[in-house]
Write a structure and sequence with these properties.
Rossmann fold; 6-stranded parallel sheet
Length: about 375
């Protein structure tokens, strides 16, 4: 039996992509799977996956400086046949593992070079320089890994010349929810967003929208679920739309799915900055999976996605009036049409079961080569 180890110093131990999809899939297919995390919550065994804690960090600086070495120590002790890394700050330990003759996969969750340019905690004047330096380092390092995994089509094209690059999209599990089993009335008045909340991710676009909608009909409601920085929370509390918004905070996966069943429109009003032009967002597919009508941007891959699949409505994210006009005109037939379309796409195309096969094939090829 091959021993596999996933490593993260940033993500929570029960991260949807890392634990619920990748680690569980590998464990149920006969691999011995360990997941090294750095959250200070201790070791445990869960659903066939051995979770090993490398200890928590005091703050971001402490994490970046010290967590990788703690994760590396745990990784060495496991002596795995293959290591799968999930964070940019772990690139150096991936290189160390390669020097020790280990097989290493690096999972590129985000286009980090682009994202650096949107990070508020990096001084604005040096973001471009930091991004440039990181991208050069990344391209040098990624050539040394055995395989790269990306969740976006556009990212696959970017890294394919560095190392074998595999697209494993962040599609939902079919078992998580079934559109056909949902029995509820669909109302254009119930709007929902799940995920990280920030200006770049359209937080203020959504607040502007609910203000515009409420001027037309007081039945409109906006519900938000996800993490938000203290800085942005202070700002949004001064926005008129916040008084019309139910903020759930950071909630469990189960709670998010309950909210999906209580709301009819799924919002994605990302601004065209950083990597947010890319369309393969987990929330897009979870909205579709749960029978919601998706409102999405009218730029980048979002347009290409919808041209191919007609799975939602593209809107100018900064025009609350334009978006409100579109929502106001929605009919029951519109909800039925998009729900039926989404059900077929999730069942036949956009599901984790299809991506699991790619994951298993990638691992088999690397391990057999060893």
């Amino acid at each position: 039996m091959f021993n596999l180890t996933h490593l993260t110093s940033v993500h929570p131990r029960f991260d949807t992509r890392i634990f619920h999809k990748m680690c569980r899939s590998l464990a149920k297919n006969g691999y011995s799977v360990s997941l090294v995390v750095a959250d200070g919550k201790g070791d445990e065994m869960c659903e066939g996956v051995k979770i090993i804690d490398a200890g928590s960090s005091k703050n971001r600086f402490d994490r970046v400086r010290n967590a990788p070495s703690r994760v590396f120590a745990k990784a060495l002790a496991l002596n795995a046949d293959l290591y799968h890394l999930h964070d940019p700050e772990l690139i150096p330990i991936g290189l160390k593992l390669k020097r020790l003759g280990k097989r290493v996969i690096f999972d590129i969750h985000e286009n980090t070079g682009l994202q650096i340019r949107t990070k508020g905690w990096i001084p604005h004047g040096i973001r471009t320089l930091v991004s440039f330096v990181y991208e050069r380092y990344e391209r040098w390092a990624f050539k040394k890994f055995d395989s790269l995994i990306v969740p976006q089509i556009a990212m696959q094209a970017k890294y394919a010349d560095l190392s074998p690059t595999v697209l494993i999209a962040n599609f939902p599990n079919l078992a998580d929810a079934s559109i056909s089993s949902i029995s509820r009335e669909y109302s254009k008045y119930n709007l929902f967003y799940a995920g990280g909340l920030s200006s770049e991710r359209g937080l203020f676009n959504m607040l502007d929208l609910i203000v515009e909608l409420r001027t037309r009909n007081p039945n409109y409601k906006l519900t938000l679920a996800g993490s938000i920085s203290k800085r942005d929370l202070k700002k949004v509390k001064k926005h008129m739309g916040w008084s019309f918004t139910h903020y759930q905070g950071l909630v469990s996966k189960e709670s998010v799915y309950k909210s999906y069943n209580k709301n009819s429109i799924g919002l994605i009003l990302f601004n065209n900055v950083g990597q947010y032009y890319m369309a393969y967002s987990l929330k897009l597919f979870e909205y579709m999976q749960n029978g919601m009508l998706v409102i999405m941007p009218d730029f980048g891959d979002w347009m290409l996605f919808n041209e191919s699949y007609q799975a939602g409505l593209n809107v100018p994210v900064n025009s609350s009036k334009h978006i409100a006009d579109i929502i106001d005109r929605l009919s029951e037939e519109d909800f039925d049409r998009f729900r039926t379309k989404s059900a077929g796409l999730i069942q036949n195309v956009f599901n984790w079961e299809s991506q699991e096969k790619i994951l298993l094939s990638t691992y088999a090829e690397l391990l057999n080569a060893k």
